[in-house]
Specification:
Chain lengths: 239, 451, 301
């Protein structure tokens, strides 16, 4: 890099993938796991709740939805410290669940799904299916779900990005470095490098290389899926 | 219809419950250490493991040496960060009552903070006193409270003045400054001749400032761990103010830099001859070498002299850093953990690697008294016999410091004021008063009786 | 309204089915939002010192927080930062969105993606990269200033850190906001523009008189998110702190201060109070904002 010109990119790359028992690959793998598990999980939760809010005029709905809108405004990072204490009491700190489970909470995703389903899934269609004898679950899975695709992709992508980019939560929850996502791992490298403590190994080139590579998966995801999310992003604002 | 609604809901419930149920499996089993991930390779795979955190640049070798020679126990080592980063992790684990390693590397100035929280094990009952004879009374006092021993001392940090021979020669400084007055005069001389900065007042190394204040006669804290709720705080006495004012003056005149130390920025300055001197401890060159100092044009250009004095007829030795291995109360097998704490980096081969590379300054008296270390020419210092000439006499003159049980907070406050001094926003006396106020307030809030 | 037993049964069924669908969310909501909030509140009612036990003192931590110069200083910083940052961000993303909406060349499509990309880069990684770029020794800024014989300013030291951070955050988020506004613009019925053009409106007038009013909801949504996000500012200062030469202190923002209070000083009770107090500050700020724009209704509907 600017101060390490002699070393070739390929050598750096090889160094990155083998340093400290290939810890970097571990981190990328962890990030992928957290992003997929947290993203898919919170999307499923959001779809179900969005559908429930949009299509069932049940008692308690308005109260629950106002609470949800209030939740959009609660500083989620301010929840991290009490969540840490609770997770620690439950013995969950320093496990993957301490990162995955809290990321299931995605009030904004529910909000987006509700607004979208309200517009894109006509009541008449659902009623027709019910009249034909389809149960609630089948109506949901076979009639409503296919109509939600753009919103699902958007919510999925947004929540995966949020989990992939998450730093505060895993930073606080995890102390075993083999569980770190790539964001926390590189942050730790930065701390070690600033303290000149790579044990004789210059970490700066690893940090630069590792940062660049960690960006690639999301960039690819955004580029390939842009047809879906570009439309989906306007859901919350057009109403 | 009702049944179907129920199924729909149940499906949703199962999805959520499935995720929650899996979470039960993540907790620690009977022997959490068996599956602990280690940075090092375990050599004797059947032996029980003891987890350890340490950040010495040569820890890999130290751990391998230990594991090769022990079949009854193996060290599983990780580096979770140097200094503050490790302490944050350790403090969190102490608060959470979960997640601490069995053995942890701590600097002497941080022991009191963890002892008062009941986080460290008294290892005197696990044979610590058998190694007492290897250490000076001062070094042993740093790790013990009365008869209780809370850590095994490894290295110390006697301070000296590291300087660049090439810069001194170029600007006609024939002999390193022996007093702080000479230091300021030489700094002015180099500046007037258009030379580089003479030193650096790094905001992020408050422990250096504390040591320099103590050198002038300050006694920042009075604390006796046998009376854990009483603490004396005196951070704005004349000596503390004068030392801060002295450095503030150097900063104001543009004689010393204001960069944080240990950063890539600072290191490149040290390599490039941006600083004529570096006020630091015996272990510092090892960290600089790891970052690439002393390998290029600056090879062999460094030398070390005794730390400048305020009163040369009555020299005072001071210390920065130095560390020890402690056993945590979360250790699964405290006896095995104590064996590791007492045996790690205590074998001759590890110690020799440490002092030859200047990454540790051994406190072990058998090493310190040997002729080999005193006469060893160090590459980093261009062949200078730095241990015999500077560091061992400095260590022998070191009387020990008294630290507070809230050293981390004190350092953060001092760091804030050093930054303010570097920004020209406050003078030394004002900075000392601000630190005193903040620390006294904090101590009272924590329930201490402040004397 | 009279209800027959059959209708009541249908109502009950709908209520049951509705609750079944939102049950997973409700569980997550209770466990990861309501419980931590209540727990933080509960914790915040106790004080704990190194030399004292835990003491029930319901107001102590809050009195301390709202008289603590570290907390108040942090709040003042994030509020000031929001007041400058958000309008700047908003104007930049709105301007780009309007331009990209008006031109439809291949280059515009490419530009749209490039401007959006920083959003896909984790804030930590972005901050580390900017740390390199800002380095007076290694960064291009130092070299640029060096060309004309000047010393580059260090954008993270105490006197420049405001602007240095503003640049990073704007880079990170402007593209995302731009895409949201752009999507809203694309949703406007083009016949409106035709009508305006027939009435003699030029491009600038169309942008200001037609497009802008029609995307106010999108703008409002962005503003609220930007406000909440900025008041909770944490990641960038936390990553850049160690290389900021003291420009970023441990109490630089309220979230950073709460973090260090909890994890460096083991004061979870006070940290809980700080988190809770920050939550109150955010809520008040958002409410004031929504009140000022008198758009509460449309956002909350």
């Amino acid at each position: 890099m600017w101060f390490d010109k002699n070393v070739g990119y390929l050598a750096n790359l090889q160094d990155l993938f083998t340093y400290d028992g290939s810890i970097y690959l571990h981190w990328i793998g962890n990030s992928a796991l957290y992003a997929v598990a947290g993203g898919v999980g919170s999307t499923i939760v959001s779809i179900l709740a969005g559908y429930g809010f949009a299509k069932f005029a049940f008692r308690g709905r308005n109260l629950m939805f106002s609470l949800l809108l209030g939740a959009v405004m609660v500083p989620l990072t301010a929840l991290v410290i009490p969540t840490f204490i609770l997770a620690s009491d439950a013995g969950l700190t320093n496990t993957i669940w301490a990162v995955i489970l809290p990321s299931l909470l995605n009030p904004f995703g529910v909000y987006l799904m509700r607004v979208y389903i309200g517009d894109a899934v006509p009541d008449e269609l659902l009623d027709a299916a019910r009249v034909d004898g389809a149960g609630e679950l089948r109506t949901f899975l076979q009639v409503a779900l296919p109509l939600m695709r753009p919103a699902i992709v958007t919510v999925l992508l947004l929540s995966m990005v949020a989990t992939w980019n998450n730093y505060f939560l895993p930073l606080v929850m995890l102390s075993d470095k083999t569980l770190y996502p790539v964001t926390v791992g590189i942050g730790v490298w930065q701390g070690l490098a600033s303290g000149n403590n790579g044990g004789g190994h210059s970490l700066w080139s690893l940090i630069v290389m590792g940062s660049l590579i960690s960006v690639v998966p999301l960039v690819i995801a955004f580029l390939t899926l842009q047809r879906y999310w570009r439309g989906g992003l306007s859901i919350g604002s057009l109403k | 219809m009702k049944k179907r609604a129920l199924i729909a809901g149940l499906t949703a419930l199962v999805m959520a419950a499935g995720l929650a149920a899996c979470s039960g499996g993540g907790g620690g089993g009977a022997d959490a250490n068996a599956n602990a991930k280690c940075t090092n390779k375990i050599i004797h795979k059947d032996a029980p493991k003891v987890t350890a955190w340490a950040w010495y640049p040569n820890t890999q070798l130290v751990v391998d040496n230990f594991n090769k020679s022990h079949t009854d126990v193996q060290v599983c080592w990780n580096n979770v960060g140097q200094g503050g980063d490790e302490y944050d992790k350790f403090q969190t684990a102490v608060s959470a009552k979960k997640g601490a390693p069995d053995v942890v590397m701590l600097e002497a100035d941080h022991l009191a903070n963890y002892v008062i929280q009941g986080a460290l094990v008294d290892i005197s009952k696990y044979g610590a006193n058998k190694v007492k004879k290897n250490f000076s009374a001062g070094a042993w006092k740093d790790v013990s409270v009365g008869d209780a021993v809370y850590a095994a001392p490894i290295d110390g940090g006697p301070m000296g003045l590291i300087y660049r021979k090439d810069i001194f020669a170029k600007y006609g400084i024939t002999k390193p400054p022996a007093t702080w007055d000479e230091y300021a005069a030489d700094a002015q001389k180099v500046k007037d001749a258009g030379g580089p900065l003479f030193g650096d007042l790094g905001g992020n190394v408050p422990a250096v400032m504390m040591a320099l204040q103590i050198q002038k006669g300050a006694h920042p804290f009075q604390y006796d761990p046998t009376k854990p709720k009483e603490v004396g705080v005196k951070l704005d006495d004349p000596a503390s103010k004068q030392v801060l004012d002295y450095w503030a003056g150097l900063v104001k005149k543009g004689l010393v830099g204001t960069a944080d130390q240990f950063t890539a920025e600072y290191i490149s300055g040290v390599v490039g001859g941006k600083y004529a001197t570096y006020v630091s401890a015996a272990w510092a060159p090892g960290y600089l070498t790891g970052a690439g100092v002393g390998k290029g044009n600056d090879k062999g250009q460094f030398a070390v002299a005794p730390l400048p004095q305020w009163d040369p007829s009555n020299p005072v030795s001071v210390n920065w850093g130095g560390s020890a291995f402690a056993v945590t109360t979360q250790a699964k097998d405290k006896k095995l953990a104590a064996e590791v704490a007492l045996g790690l980096d205590a074998d001759p081969a590890s110690l020799e690697n440490g002092w030859k590379n200047l990454v540790i300054f051994p406190l072990n008296q058998t090493v310190l008294k040997s002729k080999e270390i005193a006469d060893y020419p160090l590459d980093f210092f261009g062949g200078q016999k730095a241990y015999g000439e500077v560091y061992i006499p400095a260590e022998n003159g070191y009387k020990g410091f008294t630290y507070s049980p809230f050293q981390v907070y004190y350092y953060a406050q001092l760091q804030k004021q050093l930054t303010a001094i570097n920004g020209g926003k406050i003078d030394g006396a004002g900075a000392a008063a601000a630190v005193q106020d903040a620390v006294v307030k904090y101590a009272k809030q924590q329930g201490f009786t402040v004397k | 309204m009279p209800t027959s037993p059959a209708q009541r049964a249908a109502n009950r069924r709908r209520t049951l089915t509705g609750w079944m669908f939102i049950l997973p969310f409700t569980l997550v909501f209770l466990v990861f939002l309501v419980a931590p909030l209540l727990y933080a509140f509960y914790n915040s009612l106790f004080t704990k010192g190194l030399a004292t036990g835990t003491v029930f003192a319901p107001l102590d931590n809050y009195i301390k927080a709202f008289t603590d110069p570290s907390f108040l200083g942090g709040v003042a910083f994030v509020v000031g930062f929001s007041l400058v940052l958000i309008p700047v961000q908003m104007i930049i993303s709105l301007a780009i969105a309007l331009v990209l909406d008006a031109v439809t060349t291949r280059f515009a499509r490419f530009a749209r993606l490039m401007i959006f990309l920083p959003y896909a880069i984790p804030a930590v990684i972005g901050a580390i990269m900017w740390g390199f770029l800002y380095s007076p020794t290694f960064g291009p800024l130092g070299q640029l200033f060096g060309l004309v014989g000047l010393k580059a300013p260090f954008l993270l030291d105490a006197s420049h850190v405001f602007g240095g951070l503003m640049n990073i955050v704007t880079w990170q988020w402007a593209g995302y906001y731009m895409i949201i506004i752009y999507a809203a613009l694309q949703g406007i019925d083009p016949t409106l523009y035709e009508a305006a053009r027939i009435d003699g409106a030029n491009a600038r007038q169309i942008a200001l008189r037609i497009k802008l009013p029609l995307v106010t909801n999108a703008l409002l949504l962005i503003l609220v998110f930007a406000l909440i996000g900025t008041l909770q500012f944490f990641t960038e200062p936390s990553v850049l702190r160690t290389i900021s030469n003291g420009g970023i202190t441990q109490d630089f923002t309220p979230n950073l201060y709460a973090y260090f209070t909890a994890f460096s000083y083991a004061q979870f009770n006070y940290a809980s109070a700080l988190s809770f107090a920050l939550g109150v500050v955010v809520f008040v700020c958002v409410y004031i904002f929504l009140f000022l724009t008198r758009k509460r209704g449309s956002f909350l509907s």
